[in-house]
Amino acid sequence: MAKLKKKCDERLERWFEEAMERIKKATGARTQVQLAEVLGVRQSSISDAKRRCSVPSDWFLKLYRSHGLNPNWLSDGEEPVYLNSSRGGVPAENLLRETPAGYGRTNARGRVVPVSSMAGAEVDAPKWRPQPVEDLSIPESFFRPELLVVRVDSAGMEPIILRGGYVGVDMSQRQHPDGDLCAVHFPHQGLLIRRVYYEDGRFALRAEDKTHADLHVSADEMAERTLGRVIWVIQNLAPQV
Asked: What is this structure's pTM?
């Protein structure tokens, strides 16, 4: 006689639903199809897990590797949310209070990301390191595996990028096509967002505000200073008075 499978009790069902809710909120996945895509599994695997009230341990490992998420938080709600220090201290409440939106809309999916100051952790350090100062909810389509988000605190790129705006930098893109916006580190100044041009064997970094002088950097030095290319800007063009 075949053994009867043990059914989920109320406690296990509640644990499973809470764990899956944390996974969905942290990854921006709202449907089983989207969640299966994030986890790299078949949709039927999600249904099987729900039927057993059991989250496979390798899902937690995958989410740590892909999103830096803390397996203990995913499983039991024990903070911090992230084990990757570069992602900062995103409080769980910021993830769990997100307002649901329509499942069929790509940009209805969002995720909370840490925002760094442009100064970074150490103003005079030779290498720039992020200094998280707040959190920002962005559309899921804006996210990249090596995304850095900084809050602009200078007027050098106005009126294109306003002071107080948020800039997304893809740190996997370190090339310098003429005219593209790049995030470049200068000790004692922090990150600067500038249009980059290659001229006469060196790079010219130009601000949009012409009261800021051009900066010139050798090709070797530019490779060391560049954090990545700007891929999006979020800013308020009509702030409330």
From this structure: 0.60
